[in-house]
Amino acid sequence: MGVEEKSRASGDSPRDGVLPTVNPEVEKAQPPKSAIHPAFYVSIWIAMSSSVILFNKWILSAKGFDFPVVLTTYHLVFSTIMTQILARYTTLLDGRKTVKMTGKVYLRAIVPIGFFFSLSLICGNLTYLYLSVSFIQMLKATTPVAVLLSGWALGVSTINMRVFLNVSVIVVGVIIASYGELEFVWLGVILQIAGVAFEALRLTMVQRLLSSAEFKMDPLVSLYYFAPICALMNGVVALFWEVPRLTMADVDRVGLFYFFLNGLCAFGLNVSVVFLIGKTSSLVLTLCGVLKDVLLVVASMVIYGSQVTLTQFFGYSIALGGMVYYKLGAETIKSYAGEAGRQWADFGNRRPVLRRISIILLSVFVVFSLLGGFAPDYAAGIDPTEYLNEAKSKIGMSD
């Protein structure tokens, strides 16, 4: 049998020098890439999260609406109405159809979680009456520590002293930052610590609930189930605590339009989280959370004139560094730091002028932040009027 006959017998067909091509059906089956860059979702989430915190501070402090429980109840009622609308007219809440929710599960799981959720919201909003936004963000850095301890207490995770020593760095940083706080109010600090503790218990209980495949929920579906019971609990507290002294004058001082906008921002934050989780990784979420906290501290300094001392800056830097190390680990940080360095060098080779401009803008931003935030703590007692009047008298000028 010849070579050609053997080829036919084996079932091989002549290739005619043509390389194999990709199956066009496989190419069609691949999902199309999103036209929107993940940075867009990150920016929206940071903007919404920061806006809600600054907006709440403005209503409770600047506008004198000292009814934090009423404000929290309003947010939850607004979220309840919006989730019901979205469930009926959109597909954003279709994930609830896979959740095997029964009356027994709701009472034994959702209600206790809602209870701690309500307490964390109440304590968190009460804190705005006593502390600055910048100091509140510093205290919130202890959340990973509280979550770790609550996980051990509820048996969700096993005790690991090495991990505990790692997160202790966060505590040390927050203690240093607290020591440098100029407007330290014990009641505000206690309320914030309580809020962090309640939030940690809630997160741990949610983790235990979601460990079952039957109860996997995204943040928006969770809000669909938790918002009604939380609104009811907060409403009962507000009814006896704040409603008796609430008047229409207090509401008019803020304005119905701003209340509506505030509720919309609070609900929009939950929607943005859903899209952020679906478009980014856990690493991006961690780094974005740190970036958001830093931007909030700077925004508090610029908008509300909050004074941040060098001691606080040093302590908060330690806390943020400890939080990133705890969430990512040393090896992950090294690998991504190396990759970031290569990307930065490549950016400098491709766009040298733009890189120089970026460095200059960052330097200017840091200098102005230092001058604007740190200078007042040693110059607050100086009255320039006295020196101006003295200068006028020396040169013969009068008012």
UniProtKB/TrEMBL annotation:
GO CC terms of this entry: endoplasmic reticulum membrane
Membrane-spanning ranges: 39-60, 72-93, 105-129, 135-156, 163-179, 185-203, 223-243, 255-277, 284-304, 310-328, 357-375
Region described as Disordered: spans on this chain: 1-24
Domain Sugar phosphate transporter residues, every copy: 39-326
Primary location group: endoplasmic reticulum
Subcellular location: Endoplasmic reticulum membrane
Signal peptide: none
Keyword Transmembrane recorded: yes
UniProt entry tagged with the keyword Lipoprotein: no
A Pfam family recorded for this sequence: TPT
Topology relative to the membrane: Multi-pass membrane protein
Keyword terms, alphabetized: Membrane, Transmembrane, Transmembrane helix
Domain of life: Eukaryota
InterPro entries: Sugar_P_trans_dom, TPT_transporter
Bias type Basic and acidic residues, positions: 1-15
Subunit structure: Homooligomer.
UniProt family annotation: Belongs to the TPT transporter family. SLC35D subfamily.
Function recorded in the entry: Involved in the import of GDP-mannose from the cytoplasm into the Golgi lumen.
Protein's name in the database: Triose-phosphate transporter family-domain-containing protein
Source species of the chain: Neurospora tetraspora
